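Protein folds are increasingly written down as discrete tokens. With that in mind, we are printing a sequence and the tokens encoding its fold.
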Amino acid sequence: MHTGIAQPNRDRRVSVGYLVACAALITLATTLVFLIQRGILPMWPCALHELTGLYCLTCGATRAAVALWHLRLMESLLFNPLPILLALSMLVVIGFESAALIGGRRIRVDWIPWTALMHVCVLFIFFVLRNTGVLPGI
């Protein structure tokens, strides 16, 4: 039964969990960029592009992540908007969860599914624009 009373310990655990997940993702992304730049991890060609000549939704996302890591925002955006969208979303989550930890109560975020839907819509629009020649290929 829900009493409407905040549960500070549970809220704190959830916020810490989100922040740990964000830290793990940032660490993973940093490690992958480092390994790619050093040539330890190869960048494979896109199978969809090789078979059909079409760019997929995530074509260029690795190069975009490397460009974003070096703060070349426009280059990153032209390769693929996905890393920028994910970075901005992660900053928002980190901000909300940090505020929840500092303030001692959880901020309700019902908009997360809408954010994911917005990411997919932006990627689909990017997919269409790139494959119709409006945006340059990579």
Remarks:
- The longest helix spans residues 8-37.
- The mean pLDDT is 81.
